[in-house]
Amino acid sequence: MLKAVFKLFAVSLCLLSGLARAAEAEPVRFALIDPLTGPMSVVGQPALAQLQFTAERLNKEGGMDGHPIEIVGYDNKINPQESLVQLQKAIDDGIRYIIQGNGSSVGSALLSAINKHNQRNPDDRVLYLNYAAIEPSFTNERCSFWHFRFDAHVDMKMNMLTDWIAENPDFKKVFLINQDYSFGHTVSESAMRMLKEKRPDIEIVGNTFHPLGKVKDFSPYISKIKSSGADVVITGNWGQDINLLIKSAAEYGVDVPFLTYYGSTPGTITQVGDKGVDRVYLIAEYHGDFTDPEIAERQVALYKEKGWDYYPRVAAMLEMMKAAGDKAGSIEPLAVAKTLEGLEYDAAAGHLTMRAEDHQLQMPLYLSVLKDNMKHGAEGTDYNFHQIARFDADQATLPTTCRMRRPD
Question: How far apart are CA 57 and CA 324, in angstroms?
Fold first, then answer.
């Protein structure tokens, strides 16, 4: 009994010591470059809230190598050129960790700019942490030592979606609707290629693109879907574009499954309610059946404190950065990047590995469908996504064409 008391006392002293060091040290700052105003802030603001919420928790655990983590938001208005302006502001402000997720067009611009900056400034390097820009080339032919992706890319998710479709004989006609930029076209191309390989009998009855973040009325697109006779829809839409698409489909009685990449975008659940039950599907690294009570508590706490739902992959990204910094004994980007390569981590949704070969996170994926009367509802409702299929990390992984150039 006495040994147990001393052990508890020692652990408490270590925690207090870590907190004291974190309080005294200079903060390690992360810049979030995402849409924080305008219609697409529906995805940027939740990410900012999640990062701040997670940073508060990690700082209580000693921060990153003893340094408190600080999150600073930079509004890019979902514009690539504005993103480069905000990147330079962040660098001028002394920030060396850049976080971005919304918009592969933005991600592309940041990737190129950060590579150039690091080549020209070897003593002032910057690391790009990508939590949602899932254009496959970023960890294939355009892979970079200075870029780490914490989300499964388009082909990884589509591979699992099309496996599931291929096993369902009721699906014979597929309609594709996506945003008209690089990501949307990649989703469309990936779907057509994989469906042709796995179910050549399936007919693509529509392949439509629309402007990113500019459509206010989706009824003309819903009319196309309805008249096509599609029995399933695949979409990579995100932000207000998924909210309005699903809402319009519900209003016009298009009662077919919508297989989505981002059907959990804040606002979608509250807007569709009952009409989305058993109809809105999600392929992601998580689902609403929280089996870990601690994660369920965080879901409730984040919504209560910030008004947004829990983003497990955003939390896992910051947790892995802390783990890498602690292991490296440094907050310097090069040292942290070298430690992050190959790092394994047990997160809420399963075992994660940051593949050293291309800096693409390897993770389990889940297919889920919107249900009512869920134990842990989203957006303050009783609705959330119920797991219907789990794909282990080794199932979700795909080979890479990356030929990584590493700094000396």
Answer: 17
Quick one: tokens of 334? Answer: 């090069």
CA 323 to chain centre: 19
User: Which phi and psi (to 5°) does residue 152 adopt?
Assistant: -70, 140
Q: Which residues contact 119 (CB under 8 A, 6 or more apart)?
A: none
Its pTM stands at 0.90
Residue 100 phi/psi, 5° resolution? -155, 155
Note the pLDDT tens digit of each residue in 329-340.
Answer: 999 999 999 999
User: Could you give the CA distance from residue 380 to residue 53 in angstroms, rounded to a whole number?
Assistant: 18
What is the side-by-side order of every strand in the sheet holding 28-34? 69-75, 28-34, 97-100, 127-130, 147-149
Pairing mode, if any, of strands 384-391 and 365-371? antiparallel
CA–CA dist 359, 131 (Å, integer):
12
Q: Which residue has the tokens 């919107």?
A: 370
Confidence of residue 299 (pLDDT cuts 50, 70, 90): confident
Nearest to 148 by CA among 345, 356, 328, 351: 356
Contacts of 108 (CB under 8 A, 6+ apart): 80, 133, 135, 138, 142, 182
Tell me which residue of 231, 158, 226, 224 sits closest to 196, measured CA to CA.
Answer: 158
Among 18, 78, 82, smallest CA distance to 326 is for 18
Nearest-angstrom CA–CA distance, 81 and 78: 9
Phi-psi label, residue 231: left if phi above 0, alpha if psi -120 to 50, beta otherwise: alpha
Alpha-carbon gap, residue 221 to 241, rounded angstroms: 12
Q: Which of 133, 198, 195, 156 is nearest to 392 (CA)?
A: 156
Domains identified in the chain and CATH numbers: 2-152+291-364 (3.40.50.2300), 155-284 (3.40.50.2300)
Side-chain half-sphere exposure of 380, counting CA atoms within 13 A = 10
Q: How many helices (DSSP H) and strands (DSSP E) are in the chain?
A: 13, 15
CA angle 238, 53, 241 (to 5 degrees): 10
Which of 296, 319, 293, 288 is CA-nearest to residue 54? 319
Q: How many residues does the chain have?
A: 408
288-298 confidence digits (pLDDT tens): 887 777 777 77
Rg (the chain; Cα; Å): 21
